[in-house]
Design a protein that fits this description.
- The complex is a heterodimer of chains A (about 220) and B (about 300).
- With about 220 residues, chain A is an alpha+beta fold.
- Chain A is built from eight helices and five strands; from the N terminus they run H-H-H-H-H-H-H-E-E-E-E-E-H.
- Chain A has a single domain (about 15-220), classed as Tgt2/MlaC (Nuclear Transport Factor 2, Chain: A), CATH 3.10.450.710.
- Chain A has helices at about 20-25, 30-35, 40-60, 65-80, 85-90, 95, 100-125, 185-220, and strands spanning about 130-135, 145-150, 155-170, 170-180, 180-185.
- In chain B, a hairpin with a 3-residue loop joins strand 1 (about 190) and strand 2 (about 195-200).
- Chain B starts with a helix and ends with a helix.
- Classes of the chains: A alpha+beta (about 220), B mainly alpha (about 300).
- Chains A and B meet through helix 5, helix 7, strand 3, strand 5 and helix 8 of A and helix 6, helix 12, helix 13, helix 14 and helix 15 of B.
Chain lengths: ~220, ~300
């Protein structure tokens, strides 16, 4: 799979020029690649390798069970994502009011939860390919946003997926995924806050546990 | 702001009532007209109730104090009613819409369904065009016009999306987005019966779109309704897996849907562009944990990180 780096080009390019742009891209791919900064390269490479691993897991769908694929997803997520950052952000201010026991329980269950959720959501993918469009700065924290799009085998409108990556302890880790402009991190945060509001922190832990168990038995 | 939307909505439903109130085609459709009149009357009543509800709601609905706190940035004063409506919608979906979508997918092959989607999309191009103009997004408006021209002719009445093939992708716009571009805020979240997640702005937008759509008039009344029903099935059939997975993997289905809708609309309003400052606040561990960062948590961080780096 080729790595496309489209650098700024004065921001977002209009739809009208799409055809011309693609031609231009093919023509001057090498020069664009050369002008990409080292940080962009690194951020893009991380996402590229994650994407390829995910696709290779889904590619073996016929000869594997959901449980096997989920185990593979777990490795990909735990290595490529900074789950610690994600889990703290998702809980937000409720982290402060949680007891030590609740924090530990939450940290434990969150990994299982996020693996279940994403393994289930991505498991419906079949034959999709993806390409990296460009890497842009994401404002705060020196984050980079790696913009990609997922192409369906049937054609159809491609889905834009942005990976927000952050330099953590010497390596880029994914801290958020935006699918079609929807931040997964934000959605979970609001969802969790809603559960806590209605059922309290213990209620949230219970819901998370129930979700992990339900998916576990459904996968058998 | 809120009163603005209420007025717009009142105006829209008034005009809608006038348009609908007229007997569409005098000759030949007496029996059908008789049947639809009842539905129309019901629709008008619902529209009125909605306006009253929204006006009343606007008056009492003030954004929560901690609205700026990203974590709670949910303006949902009608949550209790919304959740009930959501449950009703969910039931209707489970017994009616979802089975219909599944049957549709079961009997019509993908090729056929894509033709239907294209045709429905093509009928929506005039609305995209008008709203593109109203937002002064001339490039997008021109794209809609070109797409409509190409697809209606070479594309055999919209059955084939030839415009897409030559680089003119769809540029969906609606009046809710137009209002947003004009500076109207979204207002409180609303869960509409049948229509699903919305807000006063997008509800008003929906009514105005119905009015500005030339096909609303060009088609006979019952054809318009049929189009809406087919549209609903088409839309539902394209998200069978996604919606099922979302429902299965969310711990608060309603809250997840609400947030997805809000972000999705935000993305549509920005036409898929990145926001100038990303609405993802700082997520440094220190920030999140604040002053109460303790040693136990710190050990925890290191511990988990060790596991994750293996």
């Amino acid at each position: 799979m080729k790595l496309f780096y489209v650098l700024s080009l004065g921001g977002i390019v209009g739809r009208r020029q799409t055809v011309a742009l693609v031609a231009l891209l093919m023509f001057s791919l090498s020069s664009f690649g050369a002008s990409a900064s080292a940080a962009d390269d690194q951020a893009g490479d991380v996402v590229q390798s994650l994407g390829e691993r995910a696709i290779s897991v889904l590619g073996k769908k016929e000869g594997s069970t959901f449980v096997e694929r989920e185990a593979a997803f777990r490795n990909i997520l735990v290595e490529g994502f900074h789950i610690q950052t994600i889990s703290r952000f998702v809980l937000g201010r409720h982290w402060k009011t949680a007891t030590k026991y609740q924090r530990e329980a939450y940290s434990d269950i969150f990994v299982d939860f996020i693996v279940r959720v994403y393994a289930s959501r991505f498991d419906s993918y079949n034959g999709q390919t993806f390409e990296i469009l460009k890497t842009v700065k994401a404002g705060t924290e020196g984050d980079m946003l790696v913009r990609t799009r997922i192409l369906r085998p049937s054609g159809g409108t491609p889905v834009g997926v942005d990976f927000r990556v952050r330099m953590i302890r010497g390596g880029y880790r994914v801290v958020d995924i935006n699918v079609g402009g929807i931040s997964m991190l934000h959605t979970h945060r609001v969802e969790f806050a809603s559960v806590i509001k209605r059922k309290g922190m213990d209620g949230l832990l219970e819901e998370l546990r129930a979700q992990v168990e339900a998916r576990g038995s459904a996968a058998e | 702001m809120c009163q603005w939307v209420a007025w717009l909505l009142a105006l829209a439903s008034f005009i809608l009532a006038r348009v609908i109130g007229k007997p569409a085609f005098e000759g030949g459709h007496v029996t059908f007209a008789a049947a639809t009149t009842r539905i129309m009357r019901l629709g008008k009543m619902l529209a009125m109730l909605m306006v009253i509800g929204i006006v009343a709601g606007c008056a009492s609905a003030t954004a929560p104090e901690n609205y700026d706190d990203e974590e709670y940035s949910v303006n949902d004063p009608f949550e209790d009613i919304n959740r009930i409506t959501f449950a009703v919608n969910d039931t209707i979906d489970a017994v009616l819409l979802s089975p219909m979508a599944n049957i549709y997918v079961g009997i019509v092959p993908r090729w056929g369904r894509e033709r239907a989607t294209n045709m429905l999309n093509n009928l929506g191009e005039p609305v995209n065009f008008f709203n593109g103009l109203l937002q002064w997004e001339l490039e997008r408006a021109a794209t809609s016009m070109l797409r409509f021209t190409f697809n209606s002719t070479i594309g055999l009445g919209g059955v084939f999306d030839v415009a897409e093939g030559i680089g003119f992708s769809r540029t969906p716009e609606d009046f809710g987005q137009t209002l947003a571009v004009w500076g109207v805020g979204e207002g409180p979240f609303l869960m509409l019966p049948l229509f699903g997640p919305s807000n006063p702005r997008d509800t008003a937008g929906m009514a105005v779109d119905w009015l500005m759509d030339p096909f609303t008039r060009a088609l006979r009344e019952h054809e318009s309704w049929q189009r809406s029903i087919v549209r609903g099935i088409d839309l539902r059939s394209r998200y069978i897996d996604e919606l099922a997975v979302l429902k299965a993997t969310s711990i608060d289905h309603y809250a997840a849907m609400r947030e997805l809708y809000r972000q999705h609309r935000g993305n549509e309003i920005r036409n898929g562009k990145l926001p100038s400052t990303l609405p993802i606040p700082s997520i440094t561990i220190w920030d999140v944990m604040g002053d109460e960062f303790d040693q136990a948590a710190s050990d925890d961080v290191v511990g988990v990180d060790k596991v994750s780096s293996e």
